[in-house]
Amino acid sequence: MSRNYRLLVKNAKQVVLICNNGEKFMTKHEILNLCVIENGSIVIGSDGLITAVGPAETIRDQFAGATFDKVIDATGMCVLPGLVDAHTHPVWAGDRVHEFAMKLAGASYMDVHRAGGGIHFTRAGTTLVECKSGYGLDLHTELKMLQVIEEARNTLPINISSTYCGAHAVPKGKTVEEATEDILQVQLPRLKEQMSAGTLRVDNIDVFCEEGVFDLSSTRRILQAGKDLGLNINFHGDELHPMNSAQPRARDMLEAGVIVALGSDFNPNAYCCSMPIVMHLACVNMRMSMPEALAAATINAAYALGCSHTHGSLEVNKHGDLLVLNTTRWEHLIYQLGGHQELIRYVIIKGNIVVDNDKTLDL
């Protein structure tokens, strides 16, 4: 057995595993027992997967004589799983400064919608991100957007879950029924061809179920067709108007035992790709606790993307994706609104350091 490993992160004040029994997700009562090791270490193998995690003394004894490509002394620091952003729209050109100005002047989202209206995730601690198409609305442009996402997956260190979102809006000049038929009869069959040929990988399907966009019947038909292709279902529901497709109140959902995940909704109309800021807002505006927000941005967000068997917690054989924070308590990542750039010392993906930030501040 090889005794050479890719990375050792040792002597961390806290190692936040999230969970340690192979849980696929966490609900309210499970989150009360968020798994944290005081004075811990973690080893990532040459395959980029977690080999061992545990008390620093145990890891030191277990790996005595082993060699490591890189060693990080995390004394006085915290280690967390890489954050998972479960909902983004990152593929677009230009900007929407004029729409931001419209909203500041009192326009609603649907006012902007009717008017026609480089990824920086890793620096904020995201190591797995969901990326949607949806700004094309025709076969050629939707495929082009999915190809851009595929290129990003092949060239960037961040892990990407790709989502077809051709039902993001009803194109001008078409009815809901016409747009639905185009998706079912034209776009999805071509998508199936490219997926079968191995030229395109798509993981999820999304529909914007909303008044003035896709109704419940059309949404069900499109999502079922995507499910038949083997895609995970991920959809916008009850975002602006109650349509009985989902329930947006996080506190009510948690109390009912629903699995709650978070996403930034990064897009040209809401330019934020910081999951620490999203977690802070979830605590302040949706009355989530900090452990609930962290679980929602790690294991539960990974579960929403069908990836919780490989991401979302620090467990053996999962991807070695993690953050090292220059603080003795993990809660500072959420507590310090907008302060993540002064806290996140390292971002690591599959045992490789992708962000090395020497501008952190000592707390």
UniProtKB/TrEMBL annotation:
GO terms for biological process: L-histidine catabolic process to glutamate and formamide. InterPro entries: Amidohydro-rel (IPR006680), HutI (IPR005920), Metal-dep_hydrolase_composite (IPR011059), Metal_Hydrolase (IPR032466). One of its GO terms (cellular component) is cytoplasm. It comes from the Eukaryota. Its cofactor is Fe(3+). Keywords: Histidine metabolism, Hydrolase, Iron, Metal-binding, Zinc. Pathway: Amino-acid degradation; L-histidine degradation into L-glutamate; N-formimidoyl-L-glutamate from L-histidine: step 3/3. Its EC number is 3.5.2.7. Residues 247-354 form the Amidohydrolase-related domain. It catalyses: 4-imidazolone-5-propanoate + H2O = N-formimidoyl-L-glutamate. One of its GO terms (molecular function) is imidazolonepropionase activity. It is an enzyme of class 3 (hydrolase). Belongs to the metallo-dependent hydrolases superfamily. HutI family. This is Probable imidazolonepropionase. The lineage of its organism: Eukaryota, Metazoa, Chordata, Craniata, Vertebrata.
